[in-house]
User: Fold these one by one.
Assistant:
Number 1:
Amino acid sequence: MKALILGNANFTGPDLISPAQLFPFFDNRAKLRQALDLTFEHVHAETFTEIEAACGEADVDAVFLRPSWQESPDEAERVLSKLKQENPDRKLIFLDPWDQVNSRFFNVLPYVDRFLKYQRLKDVTRYQQPLAGGTVITDYLVNELGYDIGDWYVGSEVPAGYESRIGTSWNVTLIKRFKQELLRRPMIWQPKIAKSIDVFCRVSYGVRGSHDWYGRYRQAAIAAIEPLEQHYKLAVNGEYVGDRVISSRQYFNEIRRSRIVVSPFGWGETTWRDYEAVCYDCLLIKPQMDHIDTQPNIYIPGETYVPVRWDFQDLEETCAYYLQHPEEADRIIQNARRVYKSYFEQGQFVKTVEDLLVA
């Protein structure tokens, strides 16, 4: 079987999400060939014009395509309907570029075999329900906390009867640095990193002056943590784009030395920080994630992470509790690491690709 992988796989550019979504194909190339007899070619094609040209020249059984989020939904529908009509037996698997659980590309659902999100609403029937701003997060902020989000909206109508085609792919955290950190074998002489910081939460507020809900929500998280400073050592702050307070080197140095990592929602629910917390043996505390499906699933409440209320009213006391009960924190930390690590050890990416191709 032959496949064509379309999208941006270049980690040196500003967009790191696209190459992170495509990286597992390259990382598992030999395993895909051995287990599924699957070979693939990659073409850098982000626009639907480029995608159309690449598909037209390809003699393949399946196409995995990951366009730019900036592309037009109308152009997406034009190209994908044409490709499906010309090759009805060829699998078209759409890797959605939107970080949110919603998408502006649901209009292509009738023309693709699977529409994959790296984080998806667990109950796909909820995609038929109207949400302020198009996401569960923004709907909560508007209707429960009274946020004014203006005309901010990420979403599109799901054609009736096609919601079952919305599936879960794999999280963007299957990249090399996470995998190496999880699977490395510490040398006997290598000292364990001392946990000298109690709570870590270094976050971006977005663009200064934009007044996005994103920055305001994260400011609420920081405000809820700050009272802990009376009794605990914190590495907590927010910064605007362009106003760098700490370097990347300091960020990673601090997170490695932290007992707890607090990870508020970003533009979507899951963040790089969630999986960094697991890699570096920190307790992940985060707004409750029961509505989300993602793989690897490190969001089992009380088992692999600690959920808190979306308004952060219980965040301070939750952090204090687990700092005072380190044995309970350690149990959850070890469970999360085991779950994340097993995804790689059991070859779950290859199994996911197999399910997509045989369905």
Note: The mean pLDDT is 94.
Number 2:
Amino acid sequence: MDLISVLRLSLDVGLCVLIWMVQLTVYPAFAHFRKEDLVRWHKKYTLGITLVVAPLMIGQLCLVTYQIFDMITMYTIISAILVFALWLITFTMFVPLHKELENIRFRESVPVKLVKRNWLRTALWTALAILTITHYTIT
């Protein structure tokens, strides 16, 4: 397996594991904070999670872009669609919800929305990880 394949497999599986941790542990924990405490803790959380997630997502985007230009296959097309969809969903749906949590006047429904809506990203990153694992173990 070449370096690009190892990196791609590592990033796709790593982001899949990370989103499951967020979905099952981090977002549900938001419901256990008082508003003031959640606003204060959320600022620390978003900084920390951004330092972990941003390089992984940027790396994944760079690799999928490289692969789509290097060789167009069904795998590269489907994985590019999934990665671009994840970026779109993250920045149009989740960044605004997280921004809302930075304000003490956020609506009580925001943490619940994060959990419910994040199932979409969880499903997409899981599908991408399965696709990548399948692709690299069959070829």
Note: Helices lie at 3-29, 35-70, 74-100, 109-138.
